[in-house]
Fold this sequence. Notes:
Layout lengths: L4 E4 L16 H10 L4 E4 L5 H11 L5 E3 L4 E3 L6 E4 L4 H11 L5 E4 L8 E2 L12 E6 L1 H11 L5 E7 L6 E7 L4 H12 L6 E5 L5 H5 L3 E4 L5 H6 L2 E2 L7 H9 L1
Parallel strand pairs: 1-2, 1-11, 11-12, 12-13
Antiparallel strand pairs: 3-4, 4-5, 6-7, 6-8, 8-10, 9-10
Helix pairs in contact: 1-8
Amino acid sequence: MKYKAIIFDLDGTAIPNNFNGIPSEQLINTISNAQNTIKLCAATGRSISMAKDILSALQLKDPCVISAGTQIINPLTDEILWEVTLESDDVKEILKICTPYPYEVLVRNELIGEGGTAALRAISGNINVIYVMGCAENDAEVMLTELNKLNDVTAAGVRSWSLDKVDLHITHRDATKEHAVSELLRILGLSKDEVIGVGDGDNDIHLFAGVGLKVAMGNSTNKLKSLSDEITDSVDDNGLARTINKYS
């Protein structure tokens, strides 16, 4: 089958999983050579403030999913093409659940250091995503259990940039990567079977649910590998570039 688009994660897939990760020259060149034959879109938990430099380095032209599945943007102009926000009452409940913990809470496009603990945050207006940064695993498990009891909220734990820590991505229940990918395919005019998804973390399970062919990176979690159709090389060995070359 001829695939028409590849949707891929950033951290751990297109770049090493650290705050200052950058794409390899091989990946940049591969994307440049492939963009005339296949659509290439990122799908990342990062907000635009934390993703912009990477999207620019990759020179992506097609719409991209950002902010944990809450927004689709034009990467050339930053125009928001689609967005889902949290209910204000749910934002209050989320902060209440997080208040006993000392972790930094970020909203919208805030960068690390611009937030504060939930106990200190006074948040209003339209909130598309809430991040709780650098949580201890035990605390993350407790918070995730409570957060996912909220009817209109979904929360996922992802590997933090801090060693052995977990970041929480909290969104409206209709704003996961799966929901965003479905909307992205509508924008692109493509069917699920025409699209490849590439990821490395458990939060990419939602990405896999929205595509036809599921490709896990060599550095993926065991759970994601078990759900994949193929396993490519690790991010350090340019597995994403290999997949793009194979299918473009």
